[in-house]
Amino acid sequence: MAESRVHTQFKLTSEDYLEVKVGEEVTLPCHLSPDTSAVATTIRWFKETECIYLYQNGQVTERSGYEGRVSLITQELERGNVSLRLRDCRRSDRGDYKCQVIHGEQKEEAAVGLRVREGKCSRTPVMFLNT
C-alpha cells in the first residue's frame, strides 16, 4: 500500500549580509516561505564549504570550534524559522554562511554574509592637524 504524503513546496529567504561586533551575539536569518514547519526537515548551516551545524531528526551536531556558540531557535522551527544564533562572535567568524533545508526530495539553500568588526575601542590612532 502506497503512503500518501502532502508535500508542501517551500523557498528559503534570508538577508544579503549582517554586521556584528566582536564578542556580540548575532542571528543569521533564514526562514521557510510560506511559513512551514521545519521540525521534520534536515537543516545544515555552512560557513564557506564547511558544515558547522546539523539538525536532523531532532539531533544536533556542532562543528569543533562552534560547540556551545551556535543554535537554532527550536521553539520557532514550527513556524519555519531556521535562523542560526551565533554567540561570542570572533573575527574568524566573518565570511559567507549558507543555510540548507532538505525535506523529502526538495533541497533549498539561502546565503548570508557576516561582517565582524572590532568593538567600541578603536585601536586606530587618530591625528588631528591644525591648518
From TrEMBL:
Which InterPro entries does this one have? Answer: Ig-like_dom, Ig-like_dom_sf, Ig-like_fold, Ig_sub, Ig_V-set, IgSF_BTN/MOG
Q: Which Gene3D superfamilies match?
A: Immunoglobulins
Q: Which of UniProt's keywords are assigned here?
A: Disulfide bond, Glycoprotein, Immunoglobulin domain, Membrane, Signal
**GO BP terms in the entry:** regulation of cytokine production; regulation of leukocyte cell-cell adhesion; regulation of T cell activation; T cell receptor signaling pathway
| Highest taxon above the source species | Eukaryota
- According to its record, what are the GO cellular component terms? external side of plasma membrane
Tell me where in this chain the Ig-like domain is found. Answer: 8-113
Q: Where in the cell is it found?
A: Membrane
Annotated GO molecular function terms are:
signaling receptor binding
One Pfam family assigned to this protein is: V-set
Chief localisation class: membrane
Name under which the protein is recorded:
Ig-like domain-containing protein
